[in-house]
Design a protein that fits this description.
The complex is a heterodimer of chains A (251) and B (201). Chain A is built from 9 helices and 5 strands. By secondary structure, chain A is mainly alpha-helical. In chain A, helix 1 (27-37) crosses helix 5 (100-125). In chain B, strand 2 and strand 3 (81-86) form a beta hairpin. Chain B has 9 helices and 6 strands. Classes of the chains: A mainly alpha (251), B alpha+beta (201).
Chain lengths: 251, 201
């Protein structure tokens, strides 16, 4: 409900009350606040005493935030009925209908839980939580900072990826194989459809040479950009896992 | 206890119980069990493992609670189940170690809802909304996602509504060692809970 209140800081200056819309939620909350601002205890009498303010407020709220105001109008109409009964005592209330005292009892219970909420909030502000030993998340991995990485390690990784491309003196001039990104996209999609997930290492290992590797890599980026696949890495230097976002086995 | 192997296991447990009463000490055994457990243990469960009686286990647990009162770990009790947690005043260090951000506090709507569940012991969404007078769906979703409450079951009523109850994470999160640490409410909240006490069962 709080999210539907609209702009912050809107205040009502009805009947001398300054009530910030952000400060309460729900009709019971408003009623409790109106009663407390009058310095009254929560009783059936004080509930009726703030009826006019509440009804006026509910109407004003209704004009501004129709959706959020319906619950307020419901309570407002109930209050108006109760008040009219109090003013005209000969009108016998029906048994199953709520009386002002019932409403006061609900407010009293609600106000008690508001004090519980305040107490819990104070505990959080004191910042004293206990921690369970196996609590998630696990100890954080130190993240390697850019620039402090090992250059040799990086080169080795690159070498590992491209070692398929060891230049061999060729006796016969063979035509360069060409790879189209679009073909690779289709291949990857087919593999993802049948398997669901692929590791980038496996994809790289399936490439015959550097040109194919590059085309495949661009295809991976393309799939991610199209949101056809998502990539995840569990930690620094961990395996990069490509997962189909469209499920697998049926498509 | 009809088969021979059961009888053998029983006498094993008796032998273990004897050694607990000797040099080992039941408290030390419980301490070890709580240390390796990845969840809260009930007194009955500890009694079953150690062969000690449940009253003996309860006595040992309350001695342990006292013992831990000044230590870096404390014994947390939630609805008759026990587990070891860090002392609440060490929260800042723990948060730093675990790499946790300063927490975003739950909204007052979520805290009111949590209070209702904690004091009532169990509550359905309709019961919570009856008290609060507003839709409490998002408050419940927040509490569930933070594991402060859980679904304890379904009510045998039309629509089979979910019944929510607090978790021991709730106690730990607020630095409480037991539901008894919550202040008394001077209200008759429910017919089965007239004292306004959170039921610790």
């Amino acid at each position: 409900m709080t999210a539907t209140w609209g702009p912050a800081g809107q205040a009502s200056s009805l009947t001398g009350f300054e009530i910030d819309i952000e400060d309460f939620e729900g009709p019971l909350d408003l009623l409790v606040q109106l009663i407390e601002k009058q310095g009254l205890d929560i009783t059936g009498v004080s509930v009726l005493a703030v009826t006019d303010q509440f009804v006026a407020y509910a109407h004003q709220l209704h004009e501004r935030f129709a959706e959020a105001a319906s619950e307020f109008l419901l309570v407002a109409s109930r209050l108006a009925l109760l008040k009219s009964r109090a003013l005209l005592p000969q009108a016998e209330p029906e048994d199953e209908e709520e009386s002002a005292d019932d409403l006061a009892e609900r407010l009293r219970i609600y106000a008690a839980f508001k004090t519980v909420a305040v107490d819990l909030d104070a505990r959080l502000r004191a910042g004293q939580s206990a921690f369970i030993r196996v609590a998630q998340p696990s100890l954080p991995q130190p993240t390697p900072e850019p620039g402090t990485g090992d250059l040799m390690r990086l080169l080795k990784a690159l070498e590992g990826l491209t070692q398929v491309d060891t230049p061999v003196a060729s006796l016969i001039e063979t035509p360069t194989r060409r790879f189209r990104v679009a073909d690779k996209v289709r291949d990857l999609q087919a593999m993802l459809t049948s398997r669901g997930t692929l590791t980038f290492d496996a994809i790289a290992a399936s490439c015959a040479d550097r040109a194919e590797l590059i085309a495949t890599f661009v295809a991976v980026l393309h799939l991610v950009k199209q949101r056809a696949a998502s990539v995840e890495q569990s930690g620094p230097f961990g395996a990069i896992v490509l997962t189909s976002t469209r499920g697998h086995g049926h498509g | 206890m009809a088969t021979g192997s059961d009888a053998g296991a029983a006498s094993d447990t008796e032998a273990m119980a004897d050694s607990l009463h000797g040099d080992l000490g039941l408290g030390r055994a419980i301490e070890g069990l709580l240390f390796v457990a990845d969840r809260a243990l009930s007194a009955a469960e500890i009694a079953g493992v150690t062969g000690a009686s449940e009253p003996e286990v309860r006595t040992a647990l309350s001695e342990l609670t006292e013992h831990y009162r000044t230590r870096g770990i404390i014994l947390l009790e939630h609805r008759n189940a026990f587990r070891l947690v860090s002392a609440p005043d060490l929260a800042d260090y723990c948060r730093r170690l675990l790499g946790l951000d300063q927490r975003r506090h739950p909204s007052s709507a979520a805290l009111e809802t949590l209070g209702i569940v904690a004091y009532r012991g169990e509550a359905t969404r309709a019961e919570i909304e009856r008290v609060r007078g507003v839709d409490s769906d998002s408050a419940l979703a927040t509490l569930l996602s933070r594991n402060l409450i859980r679904e304890a079951g379904r009510l045998d009523a039309p629509g089979r509504p979910a019944v929510f109850t607090t978790t021991d994470t709730f106690l730990a999160y607020f630095g409480l060692t037991s539901l008894d640490d919550l202040p008394d409410l001077d209200l008759a909240l429910a017919p089965d809970n007239p004292a306004g006490r959170p039921p610790n069962v």
